[in-house]
Specification:
Layout (H helix, E strand, L loop, with lengths): L6 E3 L22 H10 L1 H13 L8 H13 L5 E2 L6 E6 L2 E11 L26 H16 L6 E9 L7 H7 L11 E14 L3 E3 L2 E4 L1 E10 L3 E2 L9 H19 L6 E10 L5 E2 L2 E10 L2 H21 L3 E7 L5 E3 L1 H15 L4 E4 L9 H7 L2 E9 L22 H19 L1
Parallel strand pairs: 4-5, 4-6, 6-17, 7-16
Antiparallel strand pairs: 1-16, 2-3, 3-5, 7-17, 8-15, 9-13, 9-14, 10-12, 11-13
This protein binds zinc ion (ZN).
Length: 429
């Protein structure tokens, strides 16, 4: 994930009326404090399942061991998990006692290809795989929320669709689930909201950190082969040297970003890998470059892609080289719906107090495939702070580090916020 972000406390408590279509004043809605107390009481069970998951991380779209743990836990709650056909996803529905709409709560399931070096007694038992982005805690928090909601079916007006998805780390797992019909409910049922939490050591343990609009950015990838004509390094005029062309392109891309992109709608273009040549006296035939494009709006995304192509083709043409530019689209911008965001932040502030609910000034330059769900349903993704209190904010290992340690008590906050957002959303629907 990307740069840090200055936050402000959530002080103006927003209305809880987002999506409200009925009078809820007579409903018996459990208070946020009671949910948090129950989540804290259940924390040992949440920690236990999190540690089981943490020991056996799997990477990608096929996570059979992880899926088996999630399925066992859901069955133990009396739910009927359904398994994905194209991936090892799991869904389950918590049916409320009263009719109403449907809200999706999502947790991702996959680990990262890293070898853990935390020294934790429940560290990964699989070399080359680690839950370094905290997706183990996401599953544990969502299972905790499911238990809280299952105990309150009589207060649920509608249903909660639990979404456990593999392949968040670049494998488009959410899109597979959408393609399999995640949101295609029986006639008369409608998904009116979607909510996800992501844990992070960037923020103090127990806080909720969020922003309306762009929460995370779009992450696309480029691969470029510059084709010149090789020859002797002593006679460059008899060749078309792709190396100075590559150098010029790397610098010109940075100028393109700073001169063509609105500073308040930022973009990052990073060439992260260059490969050309073999030795001191040969001008190579080709140079290869690859990197990433990060943008916080779809408009800037399109502008930067066009700019990259223009710069690459223009500079290659100027030097009689040719360009083979491949653009690989990654996840789109994760856009938090402003009304849903205000509603969910209000629910969190009621539970945790305004000081613990922090609106971020800027998006995070990482990317998320929950963005695909938010393209279809109004909703939001928030962060749960889980930096251990003894860690210095400046040096605490971050998500995607093989030394990252998440503060487990924050999972009670996450479970309670998931449950409260669902209960309130349905009560309002
Ligand atoms: Zn993640």
């Amino acid at each position: 994930m990307g740069t840090g972000s200055v936050g402000t406390r959530h002080c103006a408590r927003p209305t809880l009326a987002a999506g409200r279509r009925g009078d809820t004043s007579t409903m018996n809605i459990p208070t946020a404090a009671a949910l948090l107390a129950d989540a804290r009481a259940a924390l040992p069970a949440t920690i236990a399942v999190r540690r089981r998951l943490h020991r056996t991380p799997e990477v990608g779209l096929r996570l059979p061991a992880t899926q088996a743990i999630v399925v066992d836990e859901l069955r133990a709650m009396g739910l009927e998990p359904r398994l994905g056909s194209s991936t090892t996803s799991v869904t389950a529905v918590i049916e409320g006692a009263r009719p109403g709409p449907t809200i999706v709560l999502r947790a991702d399931m996959d680990g990262l290809p890293l070898t853990e070096e935390t020294g934790l007694e429940f560290a990964s038992e699989r070399a080359g795989a680690m839950h370094a982005c905290g997706h183990d805690t996401h599953m544990a928090m969502l299972l905790g929320a499911a238990r809280l909601l299952g105990a309150r079916r009589d207060q649920l007006a509608g249903r909660v669709l639990l979404m456990f998805q593999p392949g968040e780390e670049g494998f488009h797992g959410a899109r597979f689930m959408l393609d399999e019909g995640l949101l295609d409910l029986p006639a008369g049922q409608e998904v009116t909201g979607a909510f996800a939490l992501h844990i992070s050591t960037r923020y103090a343990s127990g806080t909720i950190d969020y922003r309306p609009g762009a929460m995370l950015v779009a992450a696309d990838f480029i691969r470029l082969t510059i084709r010149g004509r090789g020859g002797h390094a002593s006679a460059p005029h008899e060749t078309i040297d792709p190396i100075p062309v590559a150098a010029e392109i790397v610098l010109a891309l940075q100028a393109m970003v700073t001169r063509r992109v609105d500073a308040f709608d930022p973009a990052v273009v990073t060439i992260a890998h260059i490969d050309a040549g073999t030795t001191t006296n040969i001008i190579p035939e080709t140079a290869f470059l690859e990197g990433t494009i990060r943008t916080a709006s779809e408009a800037t995304r399109a502008l930067v892609h066009a700019g990259v192509r223009r710069v690459v083709e223009g500079i290659c043409a100027a030097h009689d080289a040719t360009a083979e530019l491949e653009t690989v689209p990654g996840y789109p911008v994760t856009l938090n719906d402003p009304a849903f965001t205000a509603f969910a932040a209000g629910v969190a502030a009621e539970m945790l107090g305004d000081d613990a609910v922090i609106e971020l000034a800027t998006p995070i330059m990482g990317a998320e495939d929950f963005s695909y769900v938010l393209q279809r349903v109004p909703g939001a993704m928030f962060f749960v702070g889980a930096r251990p209190p003894e860690e210095d904010p400046a040096t605490a290992p971050q998500n995607h580090s093989n030394r990252v340690v998440h503060h487990e008590p924050a999972m009670a906050v996450g479970a309670a916020v998931y449950a409260a957002v669902a209960l309130r959303h349905l009560a309002a629907g």
